[in-house]
Amino acid sequence: MKPERMNAFTDGVIAILITILVLELRPPAGHQLSDILDEKSKLLAYLLSFVFVAIYWVNHHHLMQIVHRIDGRTLWANIHLLFWLSLTPIATAWLGDAGVKSGPVAAYVIVLLGCAVSYTLLTLSLLALYESESHLAQAIGSDRKGKLSLAFYLAALAFAFVVPWVSVALFVAVALIWFVPDRRVERVLVDDR
Amino acid sequence: MKPERMNAFTDGVIAILITILVLELRPPAGHQLSDILDEKSKLLAYLLSFVFVAIYWVNHHHLMQIVHRIDGRTLWANIHLLFWLSLTPIATAWLGDAGVKSGPVAAYVIVLLGCAVSYTLLTLSLLALYESESHLAQAIGSDRKGKLSLAFYLAALAFAFVVPWVSVALFVAVALIWFVPDRRVERVLVDDR
Amino acid sequence: MKPERMNAFTDGVIAILITILVLELRPPAGHQLSDILDEKSKLLAYLLSFVFVAIYWVNHHHLMQIVHRIDGRTLWANIHLLFWLSLTPIATAWLGDAGVKSGPVAAYVIVLLGCAVSYTLLTLSLLALYESESHLAQAIGSDRKGKLSLAFYLAALAFAFVVPWVSVALFVAVALIWFVPDRRVERVLVDDR
Amino acid sequence: MKPERMNAFTDGVIAILITILVLELRPPAGHQLSDILDEKSKLLAYLLSFVFVAIYWVNHHHLMQIVHRIDGRTLWANIHLLFWLSLTPIATAWLGDAGVKSGPVAAYVIVLLGCAVSYTLLTLSLLALYESESHLAQAIGSDRKGKLSLAFYLAALAFAFVVPWVSVALFVAVALIWFVPDRRVERVLVDDR
Questions:
Q1: Which residues of chain A lie closer than 8 angstroms to C12, CB-CB?
Q2: How far is A185 from chain B (nearest CA, A)?
Q3: Any idea where the domains of chain C sit in the sequence?
Q4: C103 vs D32: CB contact, 8 Å cut-off?
């Protein structure tokens, strides 16, 4: 089966998730520009959730550039990823409301872990479809970035119950790693041309 | 007419339906990880509705892989299916709120029946367009899965007013049957290649 | 310019509009199946708005089947149509809340008129792009259905302030006329094959 | 990489943003047509936000007509634009609620500036990908419209704290300039055919 419709569905779901926290924003009650600051925690939560979901979209976009065939397992691996992604807005909202406390930080890390694990499973389901000498295997390689992220997230989960700020530092670090989309994929695509 | 735009529209509607219950989720009031449990019935309802809608998306995706021509009747059969699917989030929400009582269980089964019947009608409208020796007819065959589902749902509707838990067991069983997407379609596609 | 992206955008907007009233539905407070009746006016408004928007989607789908070239004017004519369509859910909600009174019925007819006029303008902007001997001109012909609808709506607007029920009868009649998608288009497409 | 998926994702996000203020509209409490006027500031805010987002969609549509290759930087430049666009509904809502006061007017101008700057950055990221003699460079030319808009917005930001109505006049003027989609692009496309 071709991946076009799976990609289009993914884009639709992510378009909703990336904008869902806009619905939480309310116009401030006052008339001064500084009154925006009343909404600053919600604005910040919106920005965080937006960037986070965008990172996954960009990486999904890059990954699927070199995938031209999928099967039923891929569809479910992808839906599994969408499920975890769909929880990031609400996890971000809790973090924005309650601040850097054990509960919201741990919940946030669990959602991030869910996203990372399901993204890895999606990658594996694709690798299973392709032969090892393919572009995909070459582009993903040993997936050091993926393994590193998982290690960071597990550490962040442990720290959440001790020093929550360390957890935040850890997952912001992971976000930065992924912010740069998968250059390996672009390299393979260029070689291919 | 070609089915591309109908599929894209279906994907858009399902992308909304699959995420609509996210809007019901609220950040917990407390700061402990265990405070998530206050939201557990809503989380569970979200998961149930997500899986349910996803099953239909996966099966619709499989079905339309081998359909390359549609007519006006197909469009309306598809919109009819979307209408019933659009009621599943609200039916799930009632089930989540009220628990396993006659009312919400019966309503849930009615929505499931509506989805199943309208999916069957969509299949029939497609079969009417194609000749009997086509791949589609071959892939759908005698539609034992579809007929079995309808029988289970009718039984579930009757039990809703007597022992609602039996109804729940019945429709969970149907969900499991459909969770595995239509292997028959994949088989036909492979033969075709 | 090609119409593909305009169609995709239209599908996205209509997918949202067709499901937006789902957000108004609330699970009933009780545990009996009959408690659904508490929500019956909202359910009915949802069904009405769903069918109405679906009719436009089906006709837009048919119309654009034979259009392969658009210009900037077409984009704005299409956005104008989307604007009026986007008001149908709220107009339906008022009708559902307040019942068949002058205010909501007149508002509903005004929105229907807006949709009908903007759809006609979209058709005209397309005809201006194509030569008169084209398939499009042939398929649309003298647009009797369009002219009849406008006449019915104008009558319905007048009756809204006298006998609102007559208005309702008039616009339901128009809906029925359009429910059957444009057979003329299908005929042209078949001749073409 | 090809731009198709980026365009589709953009369409999905803009489809949500353009309709998000519909959710703010409530049916009036009364039964008279004139009761709509109770909602007039929300209706006006909806119309303004709709037109504003539509202008960006039309211009994005035109711009991408002549772009057939993108890279990772383009994806992020585009997401950056979507972020600012996603703030226009809430900025419009504040303006609608509070009226022409310093605070909401300045906030509105800041969002408009964000959109204009990020659109310019998107254009630059595309120009960097293409050689100077390409159609794109030719179509965009010296980007006088873009530079003029930025100048108007900066002036509007200054006036917001002195005479807010002048700011409104300035950004309405910019909207009118852009309302007419980029004829330069259409000209190039026509020459190309």
A1: 12, 15
A2: 27
A3: 4-192
A4: yes
Q: Is C94 in contact with D28 (Cβ distance < 8 A)?
A: yes
**The total number of residues written for chain B in this structure:** 193
Interchain proximity A107–B8, CB inside 8 Å: no
Identify which of D7, D40, D10, D6 has the alpha carbon closest to the alpha carbon of residue D25.
D40
Q: Is D47 exposed, middle or buried (0-12, 13-18, 19+ CB in 10 A)?
A: middle
> What tokens appear for A171 in the block?
């997952």
Residue A131, Cα to own-chain centre: how many angstroms?
A: 27
CA closest to D15 among chain B residues: B12
pLDDT in tens, A109-164: 999 999 999 999 998 888 888 765 567 777 666 677 788 888 999 999 999 999 99
Subunits touching B (CB < 8 Å, at least 3 pairs)?
A: A, C, D
**DSSP letter string, chain B:** --SHHHHHHHHHHHHHHHHGGGGG----SSSSGGGGGGGHHHHHHHHHHHHHHHHHHHHHHHHHHT-----HHHHHHHHHHHHHHHTHHHHHHHHHHH-S-HHHHHHHHHHHHHHHHHHHHHHHHHHHHS-TTSHHHHHHTT-HHHHHHHHHHHHHHHHHTT-HHHHHHHHHHHHHHHHS--HHHHHHHHHH-
How much is the ipTM here?
0.87
Tell me the C-alpha distance between D188 and D185, whole Å. Answer: 5
Tens digit of pLDDT for each residue in B29-66? 888 888 888 888 888 888 988 998 999 999 999 889 88
User: Over the stretch A20-29, which tens digit does the pLDDT of each residue have?
Assistant: 888 888 888 8
The chain-wide mean pLDDT, for chain D, equals 85
Residue whose entry in the numeric block shows the structure tokens 């048919």: C62
Half-sphere exposure for C100 (CA within 13 Å, toward CB): 12
Q: Identify whether the C-beta of residue C134 lies closer than 8 Å to the C-beta of residue C82.
A: no
Question: Are A60 and A84 contacting, i.e. CB atoms less than 8 angstroms apart?
Answer: no
Interface of C with A (CB under 8 A): 12, 15
B12 contacts in chain C (CB < 8 Å): 11-12, 14-16
Cβ-based neighbour number of residue D1 at 10 Å: 18
pTM score of the predicted model: 0.90
What distance in Å separates residue B89's CA from the closest CA in chain D?
Answer: 18
Chain A closest-CA separation from residue B25 CA (Å): 7
Q: Rounded CA gap, C107 and D33, in Å?
A: 6
Subunits with 3+ Cβ pairs within 8 Å of C are A, B, D
Residue C49 Cα, gap to closest chain B Cα (Å)? 11
pLDDT, tens digit, for every residue of D175-184?
Answer: 888 776 555 5
Residue of D4, D9, D16, D18 to mutate for C, most C C-beta atoms under 10 A: D18
Cβ distance of A33 and D107 shorter than 8 Å: yes
Intra-chain end-to-end CA distance of chain B, in Å? 24
Closest residue of chain A to D16, computed from CA coordinates: A16
